[in-house]
Structures are given as C-alpha cells and as structure tokens.
Amino acid sequence: MSQWSQVQQLEIKFLEQVDQFYDDNFPMEIRHLLAQWIESQDWEAAANNEAMAMILLQNLIIQVDEQLDRVSQEKNLLLIHNLKRVRKLLQGKYHGNPMHIAVIISNCLREERRILAAASMPVQGPLEKSLQNSVVSERQRNVEHKVSAIKNSAQMTDQDVKYLEDLQEEFDFRYKTIQSLEQNDKNSALIKQEMLALQAMLNTLDYKRKEVLSKIGRVIHEIDMLMSNMLTEELLDWKRRQQIACIGGPLHGGLDQLQNCFTLLAESLFQVRRQLEKLDELLTRLTYDGDPIPVQRPQLLEKVNFLLYNLFRNSFVVERQPCMPTHPQRPMVLKTLIQFTVKLRLLIKLPELNYQIRVKATIDKNVSTVSNRRFVLCGTHVKAMNMDESANGSLSVEFRHLQPKEMKTSAGSKGNEGPHMVTEELHSISFETQVCLYGLTINLETSSLPVVMISNVSQLPNAWASIIWYNLSTNDPQNLSFFNNPPAASLSQLLEVLSWQFSSYVGRGLNSEQLNMLAEKLMGQQVSYNDYQLSWSKFCKEHLPGKSFTFWVWLEAILDLIKKHILPLWIDGYIMGFVSKEKERILLKDKTPGTFLLRFSESNLGGITFTWVDQLENGDVTFHSVEPYNKGRLSALPFADILRDYKVIMADNVPENPLKYLYPDIPKDKAFGKHYSCQPSEVSKPSDGGGKGYVPSVFIPVSKILNDSTEPHSPSDLLPMSPSVYAVLREHLSPTAIESAVS
C-alpha cells in the first residue's frame, strides 16, 4: 500500500494536520494523482543536487502533462483547470530553482511519515498534547471573532464621522449665510429663529463629536486589550510550536491566520488614524468652548501610533528558521562557509509595502554572546520583502545564499575549546528593517532561534543535541548563555522528542516498549520515569557505563545506520531495535526454534544484530547472537539479503540458515521477501557472462558454532568466519551447490 493510501485512511484529526502543509507550493491534487510516482523518486537527494532536481522537475511536468491528456479525454473541466494552473506554477516558480520543489516535496513526504507514525502510537506524548490543547483552539476562534468585530466597529465609526462631516458642512453653510446678512436683517424674528436652530445644531455637533471620539476610544481600547492578551498569547504559542516543529515535532501551522488578524488590526488602526485626521480637519473649520476634539484627539492619536508601533514590531517574524539545504532535518546547525536559507515574514500584509521594505541580515549583532568566536555573513545579506515569491502572497523575504564565515582572532583562542565547547556555543542571526508608511517610520528587529556554528560535520551530532535540549527546555528565543547552566529536562518529554527524531528522520517513531528501553538506558532500572528529570551531562556528555561513548552518540549512530542502510525494514516495523539482551531472551525462550528478532547493538556504535532461539538435544533452550553488522559491512551486502542467505556451520553438519520466523511468528520470507535483491539461484552461469571462463560468485554470510567441548566463554556473540576460513569454504562451495555442500 502506498504511503498516500495510508494517509487517506487516517482519522480526521490527523488528516487536518496533513491539510496544513499542502498549499500552492505543492498542491494536494498533484500528490494524489501522482502518488506512486512521487514516492518512487529520491527527492531528498535531489534537494542537495541541482542537476538531479532539474531532471526530477522536468519529469514531474511530463507526469502532469500525461494526467492533463487523460482528464482532457474525460472532459473533467475542473481538473483540467487545476492541472493547467499547476503546470504553469511548476514551470514559472521552480524552473530557476529546481532544488526548492525537491525540498518541499521531501518535507511533505517526511511529514506524512511522521503523522502516520504518530497515528500508530497508542498514546500521545505530553508535548504534543499541550500543542493540541482545546483551550488554545478556542482562543484562536475568539481572536478571529474579536478581530472581525473590531473591523466592523471601525467601519461603523467611519459612517459616524461621515455623518458628523455632513452635519458640520450644513452648519457652516447656514452659519455663514446668516453672517453675510445686513445688520438690520439679523434682528428679524426669522433670523432669531434660525439662530436658535443653529444653536441646537451646534449642540448636536458637540454631542456627535463626543460620541465619535467615544467610539474611537472603544475601538482603540478593544485593539489594545486584544493585542495585550489573546493575540500576544497566540503569537507566543505559534513561536513555541515552531520551536517544537524544528526538533521533529508536529508541523506548526496558524501563521496565515495570524497574518489575517495582524493585517485586519493594522487596517483598523490606520482607519482610526484617518478618522482622527478627519476630526482635526473639522476642528480647523469649527471649534468652541468645551470642544472635545482638541482635548481627546492628541491622546487617542498617540495611543493609535503606539499600538501601530507594537503591532508592526510583533509582526516581523522568522517564518522558517536557518537551515542548511544539505541537512533539512537539522535546522539551526550551521557550518562555516556552507550556504543556509532563512525566511522572514511581515504579518501585516499591505499592498503599499510590496518591495518597499529592505531587510538586512547580521550575525551576533549583540556582541554579548558568550562565545569567544566571531562570525560574519557572506553572500546577499540585504533583500526586499515582496508578495511575489510566496505562493500564498504573503509579504516575505527568503535569504538563500548566506554563508557564515569565522573571523580570525588572536592566536590560541581556539585551543581552549573542547569538542563540547563549540557545540554548546549559541549564536544569533539578526534581521533589521524600517517601515515608512503614512507618515510613520518604524524600525523593526527580530532574530532567529539560537544557532550552533560548526566547522566540521563530525560536530553535527552534538550540535543537534544542543538544539534539541535548548528548544525542549525553554521558550526563551534568545538565551545565548543557556549552556552556562543548562537545566534538567523532563524524561517523559525527552523520550517523546527522541521518538520524533525517528519519525521525522527515518519515517517511523518509537513505541512504548522501545522508549522504555531508552529510559532504562538513561536512568537505570527505575520503576517510573514520568517525573524523572534528566541532566544535560547524562544525555550528551557522560559516557554510558562501561562504554567509550555517550547515550546521544550511540542513538545518533543508530539513526544514521537506519537512514543509510536499513530504512525500508525500519519503516515496515520489522526491526524491534531497542531491546536489551535480557529482554530478548525472555521474548524468545518460549518460541519455536529458529524464531529471531533484530536489535541494535548496545556495545557497538551503529550496529545491528539478530538473535535466534534454538533447542538442544536434551531439550534445553539456547540463544545465539551474531556479531553486529555495521555500516561498512552493510554497504557491501544489503541486510535483507544477509537474513536470507545467512548460514551457520555446526560441527561437521551441512551449512544451514537458522533464521525461520521473525518474532513473534512471521515467516522470514513473508516479512523480508519484498526487500531481497535477486535470488542466489538467479546468478548467471559461466557460459552466461561469467566472463573468461570464471565461475560467478556470491557473498554469503556464514558463522561457525563450535561444539560443546570448545564452546567459547561468551556463546551469545557469534563471529562471522575469518576471511581465511571463509576463503577455504568458498573453494568447496559454489552458488548452485551451497545448500548441500559440506565444510
């Protein structure tokens, strides 16, 4: 079943998450129509290879054309229209930057896998529950409702100002008419009656002026209260969701809704400002004792300007945090002299601002950073915000060619920095601009979340650990001295984030049993870890008991192993992975001989092994584990083929494969058959291309189990035969006779 078919079977709450990340950048109809083809392409590799990305983009357009021909024959007008629009988008938007569409599709596929993994988990973690709080959703609806009400109130006040303007014009006309009369005419009874009418009209004008000012004051107060409370909380919640999404959590949404609220509030404030300007015009034409305009208008205008300043300052956000295109799952880790991308958005979307705001990027602008190292940004670091580059028309700017470069410092300054010192140094990318609009000049500044600068990719794992720990532990966006005294983290939340590393990076999260094993590895045999607080040192700096590496280095090596060598098997859920030797024996002891399971090595970095249960002649149960396979050996032979072809020689018996059933009782070939490469029996015969009379050969993994008299002290680890022994064995075994050959 395709990944897209699995997505379509999800519950509605998960489908809503999927709906959030499909937009005009990559329309969902294309994902649906080309599901199989899209999933068969390597978009992640294309995201880092422009030539490959261009080929995939051209092939994608060809696929769209084929679908367009098909629906044209079916005369499906709506789909024809949509496909033509998509084709135009692909050709126009991505032709000059094909890697961008590769990144988008790669991210969408990865996010689908994360959601599928989350849907398969029996219990939601504490962090994800907090992000999907019903109180938060209710507040979002309240904010949108209040913003709409404020907009309506401002528009209604416009009508009141217009009525006041008409009333004053009538008063001016009638008053000037009387003033133009001769003195004798002014004493007539008719004129006296008109004067009384003018006085009544002036009283009405005074009442209406007070009423309009009162309504304007209420609108300003409502905007002030909304900005101070709910809107600020909404923005902070979005920033927190962004932090969590950056470390593998659920995709954060809601920025378009925030943009709508910010824009409507800005429009309302500018509308109120125009109303106050109109009142000032009315004041120049008519004033009187007790006139409320000269008393109240300056205070109201000052408040409006103050709210506009704050609204604009809060609206300048980092929409997508700094990230190297070569490592899309590791944002905020930047390598010197390697390009990274970052995107900013102004949540106040006004046409007057298109191409009028120039944003400047700098690094470590505030030199109060705790690091001794200093950096500068190379590349295009000044760009104009516009509404043309974003598919949704937002006012944004994306820097795509920035490179951090380390500045030379005094000799020996780096010598005092250990391997962890560099990856615990936090830096900040800052952005500044100026908005000039309707007589207002507003300086805006914002910063990225703290980033870690590395000079070698070997520092990437520890740097990413720092990013995880920071964003898990604090919602402070700029605590650059965080690692001077890093706080402990809740183990239950940390385990949830670790599961996200697997769901976002390798497509399948961890279940409760796997997380329990990690918890035991971190804190020992404790009964409950719900309230346990784990220190930063224990997570990333202290070696595991009896080992030469830390917990995080061990886990990161497993992620790398899965990603590069056993990804399909992991996604299928056939690798138990995180299970201790003690637990695996409990699981296997009552199973049919030949039942095996796959687990990650606890003693070797990036190793995977398999253990099977066997039964001796006396009825006793015994267990055998092969020496872990690392990435070097898996590069030579796929793991599924190893499981298929693995042979054991016991005493002088015929070599045989002891692996029969994947735990608990799945026939091996049923579990792994679709991942096998060509069968050994399909190897060509000498006459079919063995070449120059040579007999074709195949690699076959073989172990030798010694008899009881010479059994080693640690029978749990079976070493594959040495090269010399294996060479002797191959002299006597051919690919076609391997099943019946003897040692």
TrEMBL record:
InterPro entries for the chain: p53-like_TF_DNA-bd_sf, SH2, SH2_dom_sf, STAT, STAT4_CC, STAT4_DBD, STAT4_SH2, STAT_linker
Subcellular location, principal: cytoplasm
Pfam family, one: SH2
Record key words, sorted: Acetylation, Activator, ADP-ribosylation, Coiled coil, Cytoplasm, DNA-binding, Isopeptide bond, Methylation, Nucleus, Phosphoprotein, SH2 domain, Transcription, Transcription regulation, Ubl conjugation
GO biological process: cell surface receptor signaling pathway via JAK-STAT; defense response to virus; negative regulation of developmental process; regulation of apoptotic process; type I interferon-mediated signaling pathway; type II interferon-mediated signaling pathway
Domain of life: Eukaryota
A molecular-function term among this protein's GO annotations: DNA binding
Subcellular location: Cytoplasm; Nucleus
SMART domains per UniProt: STAT_int
Annotated ranges, domain SH2: 570-672
GO CC, one annotated term: nucleoplasm
Family indicated by similarity: Belongs to the transcription factor STAT family.
UniProt protein name: Signal transducer and activator of transcription
Lineage: Eukaryota, Metazoa, Chordata, Craniata, Vertebrata
